[in-house]
Design a protein that fits this description.
Blueprint: E1 22-26, E2 30-36, E3 39-45, H1 47-57, E4 61-67, H2 77-80, E5 86-88, E6 94-102, E7 105-112, H3 119-126, E8 134-137, H4 149-154, E9 160-163, E10 169-171, E11 177-179, E12 194-198, H5 199-209, H6 213-220, E13 224-228, E14 234-238, E15 241-245, H7 259-276, H8 283-302, H9 308-311
Parallel strand pairs: 1-4, 1-8, 2-6, 4-5, 8-9, 9-12, 12-13
Antiparallel strand pairs: 2-3, 6-7, 10-11, 13-14, 14-15
Helix pairs in contact: 1-7, 7-8
Length: 317
């Protein structure tokens, strides 16, 4: 069986075809400031970093497209191994602060943000390889994508997935992140195949669209909706079905952010393997994909999945 680049995780059945293993992640590359127990760490973050490295370690070629100040490109060397990335200049970097408050609570702030990704840039870089097997959307905030970006991504891929966090956040005058909804982005939801969000994020969507998870699946035509619940695991809503998974307790806490991104990438790769591999995508095999992704997320939190040293960056105000 082929072996993934980190020589520890075998490629999943059905992903041996190189054409199937080509994907792109669109969204901010964040420079995270992580504060916990009086200590502060600075690491590369964002969906592109965590989901991208996970997909690469599981045997996929990953293209990242993001706006990052040219002076910061030197700190992105850890990501260059994954595939052909396209860093676009930006006036500012995305600096995201995550402060752990204990008992599962946290405070988040956005100190600055990079320029929005536009459809023209997306088409310029990805059309020659289209259609890609999979594109994952990982905006941190609604302003990360310019108008029509999601529709452009839909036209360039067979499978389009997204993390809801970028659709349900607002930024206050003190830079604090708070739940919010941008009505102009509702049209984006109908373009997606697979969607992930936390319980809190889904509450925002349900409150403003009026859709339950089950009715959203029908209304928007999604293949599946994953609603995560932290240490309580989560549930996957499929047409006429619901599956649940249990969280796997990490042995320690080395990385405070990115577990959901690792989970989503691991799950999607399993699902795509089922669609392109031998045999049928039975409920039991989908359950196995959920449980495997939960194990991967636990390894990430413990620091056993991604090399935390590679993700460190020196603080540059």
């Amino acid at each position: 069986m082929p072996i993934s680049p980190d020589l520890e995780a075998p490629l999943l059945p059905g992903t041996a075809n190189a054409a199937v293993r080509s994907m792109a992640i669109l969204g901010s590359i964040a420079f995270d400031q992580l504060e916990r127990s009086g200590n502060t760490a600075y690491r590369l973050g964002g969906v592109g970093t965590y989901a991208g490295l996970t997909a690469w370690k599981l045997g996929w070629t990953v293209s990242l497209l993001a706006h990052v100040p040219q002076a910061d490109w030197v700190w992105l060397k850890a990501l260059d191994q994954m595939g052909p990335h396209h860093w676009l200049p930006s006036a500012h970097r995305t600096v995201f602060v995550n402060r752990e408050l204990g008992e599962g609570g946290r405070e988040q702030r956005l100190l600055s943000r990079s320029d929005a990704l536009q459809p023209a840039s997306l088409r310029r870089w990805l059309e020659p390889a289209a259609p890609l097997a999979w594109i994952h959307l990982g905006p941190l905030f609604p302003g990360d994508f310019g108008p029509g970006l999601v529709q452009a991504a839909r036209s360039l891929t067979r499978v389009l997935s997204a993390d809801l966090q970028g659709w349900v956040r607002g930024i206050g005058p003190d830079h604090r992140v708070y739940p919010a909804w941008s009505p102009e982005h509702t049209v984006d939801l109908a373009e997606l195949d697979w969607v992930k969000g936390s319980e809190e994020e889904w509450d925002v969507v349900e409150r403003h669209t009026g859709h339950s998870p089950e009715s959203a699946l029908t209304h928007y035509g999604w293949k599946g909706l994953l609603i995560t619940a932290g240490a309580r695991g989560g549930r996957l809503i499929l047409p006429g079905r619901e599956l649940r998974w249990q969280a796997v307790l990490p042995r320690s806490v080395a990385l405070e952010t990115g577990a959901g991104d690792v989970f989503m990438a691991g799950f999607m790769i399993e699902i795509l393997a089922l669609e392109h591999g031998p045999g049928q995508r039975t409920l039991s095999r989908v359950q196995q994909a959920l449980d495997s992704a939960a194990e991967l997320a636990s390894r990430h939190i413990s620091g056993d999945w991604l090399d935390t040293d590679l993700l460190q960056w020196p603080f540059l105000p």
